Amino acid sequence: MRIRKTLITGVLATSLLLPAVAFAHTPMCSCFSLGDGTITCEGGFSDGSSASGTVMRVKDKKGNVLVKGKMDEFSEFTFEKPDQPFVVEFDAGSGHKIEIKGKDIAE
Asked: Is beta strand 27-33 parallel, antiparallel or unpaired with respect to 97-101?
């Protein structure tokens, strides 16, 4: 009986902690114009982790990739602003993607 009680307590404790773990690594990304025809995006995670190496894509409205790269060692990605509507995609894997529309990036 004691083993069963310990097992149930462990399962309950684990189930209560899992939501906290799931939200501990939320991706964050913001982009801004540098005023010289380029845009810089900064990224990271809610737990303070670096986004260095995270895949970045700039896509047109049909989903075609215009620019592809990765966040640098400072968790930044800079690219030439396209002359057409675009979306910036921060892709850190399943469940960790963010899309930022070009029209929402401040000049």
From this structure: unpaired
Q: What is the pTM of this model?
A: 0.75
User: Taking the chain, what is the end-to-end CA distance rounded to the nearest angstrom?
Assistant: 66
Question: b/e string for 1-18 if b means 16 or more Cβ within 10 A?
Answer: eeeeeeeeeeeeeeeeee
How far apart (Å, rounded) are the C-alpha atoms in residues 10 and 19?
15
Reading the chain (107 residues) residue by residue, the pLDDT tens digits are 555 444 344 444 455 444 544 445 799 999 999 999 999 999 999 999 999 999 999 999 999 999 999 999 999 999 999 999 999 999 998 888 999 999 999 87
Q: How far is CA 6 from CA 2, 13, 16, 17, in A?
A: 6, 10, 15, 17
Q: Look at the block and give the residue holding tokens 């963010």.
A: 98
